[in-house]
Design goal:
The structure is a single chain. The chain is an alpha/beta fold. The protein has a single domain, classed as TIM Barrel, CATH 3.20.20.70. About 55% of the residues lie in helices and about 15% in strands. The protein has an eight-stranded parallel β-barrel with strand order 1-2-3-4-5-6-7-8, surrounded by seven helices. The chain binds SN-glycerol-3-phosphate (G3P). The site of SN-glycerol-3-phosphate (G3P) has 9 residues, from helix 7.
């Protein structure tokens, strides 16, 4: 499963890129606002930090304007994936951008029927929002499982990009279902490394090693 980080904070992106475990980045208008930076400039910098896909979101609602925005965003770098909303105009734009060979991430997906439409529109990625589903008492991971079944039934190439990830269990559940990608905030990714028994075991090993009085180097 590919790991994308969901942020426009370049320091956090550089930090995770250094682990060698980062496969891409997703941003959205709220994350750009949070960064306090110029959209085009920060997106250009992010695309230079990672080799993998960097999602940059359009903000128009009509197809014609959304398409112009998408074409402009795609010119920032070869690894830009243009993000469009799961609307009629968004899927029209998806189809047009894909016909130009531009990566498209269809976002704000909340149903398997929406995901089916996105695959028919040729989306490179579909972003179902699991956390926001959980927030209204629906199990977001059931949505991921349904999309996985539908996509496998018809050999759709669209990659399932699990978004709105709130904790490590979302990530392991997504991997168990067979999602292609997950995107999570930096803090959630860092939680994946942590386990108290690892910390305790390491401390015990080092305590006993110190007692040997030896060094390796
Ligand atoms: O990429 C979509 C993600 O940023 C949304 O997450 O936590 O705002 O639902 P959240």
């Amino acid at each position: 499963m590919k790991f994308f980080v969901d942020t426009a904070n370049v320091d956090d992106i550089r930090d995770l890129e250094a682990t060698g475990l980062l496969d891409g980045v997703t941003t959205n208008p709220s994350l750009i606002h949070k960064s306090g930076r110029d959209f085009m400039e920060v997106t250009r910098e992010i695309a230079s930090i990672v080799d993998g896909p960097v999602s940059a979101e359009t903000v128009a609602l009509d197809h014609e304007t959304m398409l112009q925005e998408g074409l402009k965003l795609a010119k920032i770098a070869d690894n830009i994936a243009v993000k469009v909303p799961l609307t009629v105009d968004g899927l029209k734009t998806c189809k047009a951008l894909r016909s130009d060979g531009i990566m498209v991430n269809v976002t704000l997906c909340f149903s398997s029927s929406q995901a089916l439409l996105a695959a028919k529109a040729g989306a490179s990625f579909i972003s179902p929002f699991v956390g926001r589903h959980d927030d209204v008492s629906f199990d977001g991971m059931d949505l991921i499982a349904d999309i996985r079944t539908i996509y496998d039934n018809y050999d759709f190439e669209t990659e399932i990009l699990v978004a709105s990830v709130r904790h490590p269990v979302h990530i392991t559940q997504a991997a168990l279902i067979g999602a292609d990608v997950m995107t999570a905030p930096p803090a959630v990714i860092h939680k994946l490394f942590k386990h108290p028994l690892t910390d305790n075991g390491l401390a015990a090993f080092l305590k006993d090693w110190e007692a040997t009085g030896q060094t390796i180097l």
